[in-house]
Amino acid sequence: MNSNHSLSLRSGAARSIRRPRADARAALALGLLALWLVGCVTRPDPPLARFEFRRPEMGMPFRLVLYAPNPAVAQAAAEAAFARISQLNEIMSDYEDESELSRLSRTAGSGRSVPLSPDLWKVLARAQEISTLSDGAFDVTVGPYVNLWRRARRERELPSPDRLAQAGRAVGYRHLVLDPRTHSAQLLVPHMRLDLGGIAKGYALEEAIKVVRARGVTRALITGGGDMMAWDPPPGKAGWRIELAPLDVTNAPPARFVALRREALTTSGDLFQRLELGGRRYSHIVDPRTGIGLTDHSLVTIIARDATSADGFSKVVSVLGPAAGLRLVAAQPQVAACVVRQPGDRLETQETKGFWRHLEPGRR
Hints:
By secondary structure, the chain is an alpha+beta fold. The chain has 3 domains: about 45 residues; about 90 residues, Orthogonal Bundle (T-fold), CATH 1.10.3980; about 130 residues, Roll (T-fold). It is about 40% helix and about 20% strand. The chain contains 9 helices and 15 strands. Strands 1-2-6-7-10-13-14-15 form an 8-stranded antiparallel sheet, covered by helices on one side. The N terminus is likely disordered.
C-alpha cells in the first residue's frame, strides 16, 4: 500500500506540476491572440490635404490635382509626373527636330526599318489599331495635311487644291508598317510626316498617373487641354465631378456633369484653334481622308478606361460624324461617347448607351 500510495503521490505531484505549465501556455496564447487582434484592427488612413500644380507641357497647360498626407509627398509626386510628360514630349513631338518621332519621319521612303523606344512603339501600335478599326478616320500619318492647315491659320488662307493633292500622296496609315517582332517601323512613302497630336497627350496622362501612383498617391486627377485622366476620387466622394464642355451657342442646354473614377475623358471640337473664312469655321481636326479641316460645329466627349483610347476615339467620332462614329464606339468595350452639335439652327445631343451611366443623377 505504501508503494501504491507513493505512486499515487508521485502521480498527484506530476499533475500538480503540469497545471501551472498549462496555465502559462494558455496565458501566452491569449496574449498572442490579443496582439494579433490589435494588429488586425484597421488603422485609419492619415488625413489627406488637397494640392494643385500647373505647368506648361507639350505646348499646352497641364494641371494636376491630388490628395496627399503632406506637401513634400505631393511636390515629389507632381515633379515626377511633369518630368515624365516632358520626357514623352521629347520622344513624340513633331515640333522638336530631334525628337524620336521627327527622326523617324526623316526616314520616310528610305527603305529603312527603324527600331522604336517602348513608348513610341506602344503609341504607334495603338494608333494603327484605331486606324484599322475606323478605316482611316484616325491616321497619324496626317502630318503633311496638318502642316498645310497650320499655315492656313497663320496666313488666313485655305490650302490650294494642288498643295492638298501633293500632301495627300504622303498620307495613309497603310504606308506605316510596324513589325511586332522587332518593335520597329518603316515609312514606305517619301515626305511622310507623323503627327501624334491626336493620341500622344492621352498616353502622357496615363503615364503621369502611373508615376503618381507609384509614389503612393492614388487620389489624383490630371488634365491637359481637353483631356483628363482620373484615378481614385477625393476623400468621401464617389468620383471626380467633371463638367462637360458646353457648345458655344446661345441656346446651349444646362450644364451636365459626370463622375470619373479610374477613367479618362477627352473632348474634341472646334472651340479652339479654328479657322474662320468665308463664313465657315474649319476645325484644327483634319479629315485624313480628304485633307480638309472639319466644318461640323460639334463637341465630342469620350469616356474610356484608358486615356490613349479616349484621345484617339474622340477624333474618330469627330471625323466620321455621330451616326457612324457612335456605332463604332458602341462596339468597343469600356468606351462611351456623347456628341453635341448644331446642324443649322437646331441643337442635338446623341450618346452611346453606356454614356448615361457616367452622368450625374438628374442630368441623364
